[in-house]
């Protein structure tokens, strides 16, 4: 029965196959398709005719096997041999006994060396990158339409599912396709902060910044940042500087994103910096886990007074004087917690600077705490807070100086200390302050600056940048033989007379050369001046002039200044409850000029506190557990009034003012200003004062020009802006040396001055006065831009020292000394 059924099925299948074959031949001969033919646009059939016949043969084998089983089961007596025709299974079959030859490469290849393998891997990697880029630009349907025809044998639904699975797998391995530089510019309607968070944009930024670090060269063809990274690796540092102007010239879109969304951009740049560093130093990650990019030379510069909400979360560049600095704290970066009940480890969680991480529920035991910080597995970073204040010379008149807090992280800690003027490039951010909101009655955010780069203004070119034309003009002025007289005449030109004070102030503004003896003892180079005289003799006007002319000046009065106001004070931080150090006037005037008016009105205890600052130019602090030393390298220019209101020439200088000998000996030059009655000089003085008022009046016209014109020739007066640049250039570039100095002249003068001071009972002459003459000679050489101190410089120093000594004597001794 079973054999008959199998034979019937074979005949029926053969007839169907012949019918299909005949139909195919008819379709081939006909010009138009018949009812049973496929449309031209239809896909190819799943199986060809040969494959259909092979499939039929396999089904026959299966049917025969089942037929044999049926016969065995139907026969109860068992006369049929179950192993009949078993040898047919072991017969030779060429189709089944041989492997497919198509696609098999039997060529023998020689083994490759390491260099050839690396080259082959690089070629394959470049090909993969190009394929991924092409896939990012071409739709997926077109890409997979180019594959071989083997996948077309699958049904359409299954083929689409395989395509999606392949896309998802490629997404996990390679990420989102990268964007070209032109595509990075097309933000459409997105903001910069949202645009940068996209993975494709991040990969494009990484590729472009990596290309910038590896390909940017200087005019000599040297890799700029390759050298900087190599220098960083040799010094075991964790950051290197990137010039913003270089980035803007090469990759302007990256510079634009960096200035407007620096928080997200700096994270990306730091990741790329680490990758590039590991190319040169593969094991550098063992030294530093992160590399930080420091942005320098940001073209736009703001003052602390100009910061507004439009600069929030943007890159800014500000400058100021450090007034307060906290200690160094370990701040959480990646924090892990342990559940207090099940001890399950949670994290790591990224700890932001402003927001504290809070855990609500344990995923293991579903409890709500408590959660303890795992101290061993938590990653920390260094944290320090600075307070910077507007530089004294940049505060508008009548305004209080503004200040901002600066957050320093990683290797930026201890980069500056109180009293130093710094320039900060960082992110201007807001921080919610509950106490500030309570005080104002509505939500108010405090603002801070998260520093990215800190630059100390050690040089005197902090406020002004000299161009090449300025340098040429300054050098040409230095060759003028009358430049010294011109500079002295240009000091406070609106003040008539007082040539000795103008000469002393000019020398003090140039200053001498500080000396470090074997790295143990420092001899100051700044010149201190004390003016003492009658009221109304323009003493305060001289101080105000120096305040406007000097590059860095701090003005204070003795009546309102205390010891801590002049030196330094200790405060407790309201947030950290830590004692912090805040510099006073002398500390803020470091590398500048400290102007003290009404010097005689200070308390004796307060005046004693500045002894160290005037000679050693440092301030030692030992308060509230803080033991440190602050720098006070500044010129002290003080003005005082006599005891009885007017200067009495019949008594010495020391008896006209309530100042002790230790502090008087710290002044290099003592200037006595007397209001003498002289009709001719009084007339000239009155004419000069009236002319000055007429010239300064807003309704000044040409009719008053003749009367307002001073009688002296103004051709020698130097423009004040040019004078500032000249003084800064001389202080920074010129360091005259003592050579071929007449030592016998100085030693004889010193011995004679000591003898006369002892005989007259006036101010005693000490070794400090000898050092003062050396400083005055160096300052005069600086004034002429000379590299060495000459004899005429020494003569000028002796002249100033003698005028100071003689004017401090009583009238009788003064007449004797002047005749000598």
From TrEMBL:
Top enzyme category: hydrolase
Enzyme Commission number(s): 3.6.4.12
Protein's cellular compartments: Nucleus
Gene Ontology molecular function: any one: single-stranded DNA helicase activity
CDD domains associated with the record: MCM2
Keyword Protein transport: no
Name under which the protein is recorded: DNA replication licensing factor MCM2
Organism expressing this protein natively: Mucor circinelloides f. lusitanicus
């Amino acid at each position: 029965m079973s054999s008959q059924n199998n034979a019937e099925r074979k005949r029926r299948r053969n007839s169907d196959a012949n019918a299909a074959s005949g139909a195919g031949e008819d379709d081939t001969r006909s010009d138009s398709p018949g009812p049973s033919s496929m449309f031209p646009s239809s896909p190819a059939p799943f199986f060809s005719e040969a494959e259909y016949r092979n499939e039929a043969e396999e089904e026959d084998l299966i049917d025969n096997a089942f037929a044999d089983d049926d016969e065995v089961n139907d026969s109860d007596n068992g006369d049929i041999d179950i192993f009949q025709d078993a040898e047919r299974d072991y017969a030779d079959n060429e189709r089944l006994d041989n492997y497919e030859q198509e696609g098999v490469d039997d060529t023998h290849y020689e083994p490759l060396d390491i260099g050839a393998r690396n080259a082959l891997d690089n070629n394959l990697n470049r090909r993969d990158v190009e394929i991924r880029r092409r896939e990012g630009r071409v739709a997926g349907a077109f890409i997979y339409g180019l594959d071989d025809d083997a996948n077309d044998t699958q049904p359409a639904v299954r083929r689409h599912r395989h395509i999606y699975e392949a896309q998802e797998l490629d997404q996990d391995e390679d990420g989102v396709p990268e964007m070209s530089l032109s595509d990075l510019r097309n933000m459409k309607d997105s903001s910069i902060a949202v645009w940068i968070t996209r993975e494709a944009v991040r990969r494009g930024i990484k590729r472009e910044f990596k290309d910038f670090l590896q390909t940017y060269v200087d005019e000599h063809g040297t890799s700029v940042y390759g050298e900087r990274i190599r220098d960083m690796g040799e010094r075991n540092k964790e950051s290197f500087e990137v010039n913003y102007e270089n980035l803007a010239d090469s990759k302007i879109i990256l510079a634009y994103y960096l200035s407007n969304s620096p928080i997200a951009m700096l994270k990306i740049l730091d990741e790329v910096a680490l990758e590039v560093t590991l190319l040169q130093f593969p094991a550098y990650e063992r030294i530093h886990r992160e590399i930080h990019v420091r942005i320098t030379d940001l073209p736009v510069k703001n003052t602390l007074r100009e910061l507004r909400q439009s600069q929030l979360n943007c890159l800014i560049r500000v400058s100021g004087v450090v007034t307060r600095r906290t200690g160094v704290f370990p701040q959480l970066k990646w924090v892990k917690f342990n559940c207090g009940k099940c001890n399950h480890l949670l994290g790591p969680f990224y700890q932001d600077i402003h927001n504290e991480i809070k855990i609500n529920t344990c995923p293991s035991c579903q409890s709500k705490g408590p959660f303890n910080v795992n101290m061993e597995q938590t990653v920390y970073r260094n944290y320090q807070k600075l307070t910077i204040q507007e530089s004294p010379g940049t505060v508008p008149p009548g305004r209080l100086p503004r200040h901002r807090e600066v957050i320093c992280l990683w290797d930026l800690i201890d980069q500056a200390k109180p009293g130093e003027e710094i320039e900060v490039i960082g992110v201007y951010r807001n921080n919610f302050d509950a106490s500030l909101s309570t005080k104002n009655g509505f939500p108010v955010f405090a603002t801070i600056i998260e520093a990215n780069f800190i630059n100390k203004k050690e040089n005197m070119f902090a406020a002004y940048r000299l161009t090449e034309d300025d340098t040429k003009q300054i050098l040409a002025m230095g060759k003028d033989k009358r430049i010294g007289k011109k500079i002295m005449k240009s000091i406070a030109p609106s003040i008539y007379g007082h040539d000795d004070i103008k000469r002393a102030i000019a020398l003090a503004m140039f200053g001498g050369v500080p000396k470090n003896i074997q790295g143990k003892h420092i001899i100051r180079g700044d010149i201190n001046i004390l003016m003492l005289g009658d009221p109304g003799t323009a003493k305060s006007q001289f101080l105000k002039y120096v305040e406007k002319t000097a590059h860095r000046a701090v003005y204070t009065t003795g009546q309102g200044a205390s010891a801590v106001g002049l030196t330094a004070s200790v405060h407790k931080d309201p947030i950290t409850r830590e004692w912090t150090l805040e510099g006073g006037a002398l500390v803020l005037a470091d590398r500048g000029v400290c102007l003290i008016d009404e010097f005689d009105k200070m308390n004796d205890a307060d005046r004693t506190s500045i002894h160290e600052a005037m000679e050693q130019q440092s301030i030692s602090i030992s308060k509230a557990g803080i033991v440190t030393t602050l720098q006070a390298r500044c010129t002290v220019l003080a003005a005082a009034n006599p005891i009885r209101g007017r200067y009495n020439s019949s008594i010495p200088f020391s008896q006209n003012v309530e100042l002790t000998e230790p502090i008087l000996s710290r002044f290099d030059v003592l200037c006595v200003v007397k209001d003498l009655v002289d009709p001719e000089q009084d007339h000239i003085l009155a004419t000069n004062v009236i002319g000055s008022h007429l010239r300064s009046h807003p309704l000044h016209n040409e009719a008053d020009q003749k009367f307002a014109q001073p009688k002296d020739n103004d051709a020698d007066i130097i423009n004040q802006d040019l004078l500032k640049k000249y003084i800064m250039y001389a202080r920074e570039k010129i360091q005259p040396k003592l050579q071929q100095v007449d030592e016998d002249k100085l030693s004889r003068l010193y011995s004679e001055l000591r003898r006369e001071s002892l005989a007259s009972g006036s101010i005693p002459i000490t070794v400090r006065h000898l050092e003062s003459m050396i400083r005055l000679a160096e300052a005069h050489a600086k004034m002429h831009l000379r590299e060495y101190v000459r004899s005429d410089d020494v003569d000028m120093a002796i002249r100033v020292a003698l005028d100071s000594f003689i004017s401090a004597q009583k009238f009788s001794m003064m007449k004797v000394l002047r005749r000598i």
